[in-house]
Design a protein that fits this description.
Nucleotidyltransferase, domain 5; 3 helices; about 30% strand
Length: about 130
């Protein structure tokens, strides 16, 4: 299992979906919130709201996420972890554009990074206590 203590700040980032179920809006439909997180610190570097009908952020949204990540330390990580079966085209292409190695791992291996963020999102944005 991967752990934050295995990494230095900005050595690795994680992309994952913050919400458990789609965020419903009357005007624009359903969305998922995709987060970019520093693996060592757990700091959320950026988020993108993606239509629930899309499998990953658009080219524009992916560029914006990586730009937000860059803004914090003025560098990109060596590695980007993504959950297996998710974010398979656009996010890895954007990572490659910046020389970042993409590692696809089972989502359960990312739980040490994602659990607290998901719990906080559930409690504060979706209004449900975990």
């Amino acid at each position: 299992m991967l752990e934050p203590s295995q990494f230095k700040v900005n050595e690795a980032w994680v992309v994952f979906q913050l919400n458990d179920s789609p965020i419903r809006t009357e005007q624009d439909g359903n969305f998922n919130c995709v987060a970019l997180m520093d693996a060592a610190s757990g700091f959320i570097l950026g988020t993108a709201f993606v239509s629930a009908s899309d499998s990953e952020p658009s080219d524009f949204e992916a560029r914006r996420l990586f730009k937000a990540g860059w803004a914090h330390k003025k560098q990109h990580p060596v590695t980007l972890f993504i959950p297996k079966g998710q974010f398979q085209a656009i996010v890895p292409a954007e990572a490659a554009r910046h020389g970042i190695t993409v590692v696809s791992v089972h989502e359960s291996e990312l739980s040490a990074f994602t659990n607290d963020a998901r719990k906080g999102f559930r409690e504060h944005v979706q209004g449900r206590r975990a």
